[in-house]
Design goal:
eight-stranded antiparallel beta barrel; alpha+beta; Lipocalin; 2 helices; 127 residues
Length: 127
């Protein structure tokens, strides 16, 4: 009788632990997948150039998609960080540095010519 009682308790504990682990794993996967791509942001330079900036993750790396009006989309990967701790993204053609806590950014071309961009909403409020 003592062994039967011990067997029932052991089976009950094993069954309840297995069931909860499955539910927790599924929830964690859903939350991770939802955070892979941020909403695209429109940014504009002082010269009026508009660029669309989309931050996303590629595996365990952070990356950014940049698309100027009328040009092909560029994908840049985080290579290092600036003095503020924000990532600096680059590929063979461009470099993108986050400024003003993500409210602006600076894009440099192959020759190192920088162009400062601000979120469209922020720039409209400054006028």
């Amino acid at each position: 009788m003592k062994h039967l009682f011990l067997l029932i308790i052991t089976v009950g504990i094993f069954a309840s632990c297995t069931k909860n682990d499955t539910q927790t794993t599924e929830t964690a996967v859903e939350q991770t997948e939802a955070a892979l791509v941020q909403k695209p942001q429109q940014m504009q330079s002082a010269a009026g150039e508009v660029i669309t900036v989309t931050y996303f993750s590629e595996g365990d790396q952070v990356a950014v998609k940049l698309q100027k009006e009328g040009q092909a989309e560029q994908i840049l990967h985080a290579k290092t960080v600036n003095a503020s701790g924000n990532p600096i993204f680059s590929n063979e053609n461009f470099m993108w540095e986050i400024t003003k806590d993500g409210q602006a950014g600076q894009m440099s071309d192959k020759n190192g010519n920088p162009v400062e961009y601000q979120r469209v909403e922020e720039q409209n409020q400054n006028k």
